[in-house]
Design goal:
- It contains two helices and twelve strands.
- It is mainly β and 194 residues long.
- The strands form four sheets. The protein has a five-stranded antiparallel β-sheet with strand order 2-3-4-1-7. It has a three-stranded antiparallel β-sheet with strand order 8-9-10. A two-stranded antiparallel sheet has the order 5-6.
- The two termini are 25 Å apart.
- 34% of the residues are buried.
Length: 194
């Protein structure tokens, strides 16, 4: 079975985009595609040179790849060793005091902005929702790499999201079968099923 999953729970590579730009097909040295949506999408992941390359793997809110991905080594971990008991030091969408809730990554913690500069940023949840609902997702291969050809219903332009899998500990899982991509919106149980 070939399909892609979108996860906000594990360590993943990304598809990213920029929020505004002039009429051109590259910005700050990186190509983008206008899918006729509210933002323009990069043609490849951070750390990749072509659409089918997986790129680099990052923990959410971190801006450097690591050799091992565990909760114990997570930058924003205050305590806990598993997702069920983890407490975060900065981003906590379930914070009781509303004024402490962060609803999007700070640019200093957004790897797209840190690595590519300018207006590049990771997609927000609503941007990814737009990509999911306003595009057709067709399983495809480029140079033997499986992933989704995401074709705009608005203008027919497309991007390719490789099935890059997920990094857990020191191993990559599901490569070639699933594509996991971050959004800049923190995970919240309120978002599940919504």
């Amino acid at each position: 079975m070939n399909k892609a999953g979108i996860s906000l729970l594990s360590i993943l590579s990304f598809a990213l985009f920029m929020s505004s730009c002039k009429e051109q097909s590259s910005y700050n040295g990186h190509e983008y595609v206008d899918l006729g949506l509210s933002v323009k999408w990069a043609t490849c992941n951070v750390g990749a040179q072509t659409p089918e390359e997986y790129g680099e793997y990052y923990a959410w809110g971190e801006t450097r790849p690591k050799t091992i991905y565990t909760w114990r080594g997570y930058r924003f971990r205050a305590s806990g060793d598993s997702y069920s008991d983890i407490k975060f030091s900065k981003y906590n969408p379930d914070e009781i005091l509303d004024h402490l809730k962060k609803t999007v990554l700070d640019l200093a913690d957004d790897v797209a902005n840190v690595k590519w500069g300018g207006n590049w940023r990771m997609p927000k949840l609503e941007d990814f929702y737009e990509l999911v609902t306003l595009c057709d997702w067709i399983w495809d291969e480029i140079n033997g790499i499986g992933g989704f050809n995401v074709v705009s219903k608005e203008n027919g332009n497309h991007i390719f999201l490789p099935a890059s899998g997920v990094m857990k500990g020191t191993e990559v899982y599901d490569q070639g079968t699933f594509g996991y991509y971050w959004t800049s919106t923190p995970y919240s149980e309120e978002l599940e099923g919504g």
